[in-house]
Amino acid sequence: MCGIAGWVAFGRDLGAERSAVEAMTRTMACRGPDAGGTWYGGPVALGHRRLAVIDIAGGAQPMLAEENGQVTAALSYSGEIYGFDELRARLVSAGHTFRTRSDTEVVLRACLEWGEDVTRHLTGMFAFALWDARGQELLLIRDRLGVKPLYYYPTPDGVLFGSEPKAILAHPEARARLTSDGLRELMTWVNTPGHAIFDGMRQVRPGHVVRVARGGITERAYWELPARPHEDDLDTTIGRVRDLLGSSVAGQTVADVPLCSLLSGGLDSSSVAALAVGALRDRGEDPLTCFSVGFSAAGSGPGFVTGPRGGDDSAYAAELARHIGARHEDLTLDAKLLSDPAARAAVLRARDLPQGLADMDTSLYLLFKAIRQRSTVALSGEGADELFGGYPWFHDENAVRAETFPWMYMAGVAAAGGPAFLDPALPERLSLDAYRADRYAEAVAAVPVLPGEAEEDRRMRKVGHLFLTRFLPMLLERKDRMSMAVGLEVRVPFLDHALVEYVFNVPWSMKTFDGREKSLLRAAMAPELPDSVLTRKKEPYPTIADPAYDQLLKGRLGALMDDTGAPVRALMDEKSAAEAYAAVRKASPEELRFLRVGFESLLKINDWMRDYRVELAE
Known about the structure:
The protein is α+β, with helices and mostly antiparallel strands. The protein folds into 3 domains: 2-221, Glutamine Phosphoribosylpyrophosphate, subunit 1, domain 1 (4-Layer Sandwich); 234-280 and 369-540, HUPs (Rossmann fold); 547-616, no CATH class. The longest helix has 30 residues, at 455-484.
């Protein structure tokens, strides 16, 4: 995995602008700690930071294709192409020659062979920039599900781009400016595809190609979730799911560096680990190492909780590891580290935005940091809940039928106006209800229609599509940022596009044939997993319930309230903020934990506005 950055400015020679490009590229060092490079070709400059996973000695970037001593194409690439050996063999048959064993060179040669249609031949997670020197144009391409990020920022004479916003913001022509639309996106969490919060900045949408030429910038979709009739019976469907997932996991266990699996002992991560063990065994490779996370309390507090289960992942994970023959290590994190200012600052820097899951982001960052000391690539079960219907929202009739995003309905977000400390007039002034409703209508309009589909299946297809296109991207962004902040590559086998296309079109009655969530996945993996995992109910990632943590944040809130120059004060109403702060000051430990959600968000917004020098548009 890597980080990319670059700049196109038609009519200029960017060889004279090296300092700006090098500054952009340096911001991606966390994503690529092993090597870095830049290339300048008249109106284009490409930057790259490398995390070496395949062909450690080769694969340096930016990578060039040359003909008669002239550069014909240049590539800055981030990601992994699975099954690239087969694609390489096809290209050799077509007359291409290779200098390395890397998947990067396979992507470059595939681009030369098929041009923009290269996407039809790529399976994996990827985001890359290809400069066509002959046609004098740039292609920005992102994988189908949006596992890997890619941002761009149009300029009067071209474009800036990078794996993360920080790469673009390092350029002197980019501004960290927040307009009303950016505020709406932050406060509603609707996650509009392509939106990047900062004014003028965009994301390349999943499954899209952005073309930058002298005539302007155009964008087109090369892949969307298809609606197809499902003609397999239940037994065939179960077998097909097992085969598709097994093939995906096997392809994603290929690496020239230490590989491990994240393991909570739940159905999703256990399925990936079990299949990975089998794939490695079949190839005669070393056993898989699995990591689960545990937490110690800070001081005398109760530490982390996840609701009813109280955080007992390690026992399930250890049992699963014994069952499949994997090595298992339980990583214990000290809860007090979550309040460490350095860790919190690292998380904000990784996210570039004040969005996220508060202490859960910090604990995930610390977990990945610990894993990175032992491994370079990790397998994850991300995406299974969205694909197989694992969340409670799928099974709540009111949430399914609500005219809003199901997760907003059940969380009460549909009626919320943001943290209590912010100006209570903001929701009305920004028309947040209308904004949320418009984004929901757009999302529903994008759902593919299957003629003649039963009403329940049509309704659940809509819900599944909303989760895969609006909810899942938020989790993928979180996992990408927290892992790449420490140079750890996380792979997501459940998001192989062939598996996604197949399961998306399975009728809801089959997905829940035994009356439980994720029935289809459970049945497909039954031969591989112990009963303890198969019968375990889904549990959320643990959140902290330590009074010491709450008190520390309360202290930071007091400092903010005393700071009349705090940037976030521009979004606050003094009277309502004083009332909210009074409620926090007199709150019991139990009440404080509940109120923390609001003021922790406020603290994060303030840190973001300060550190990124965010400008609020008039």
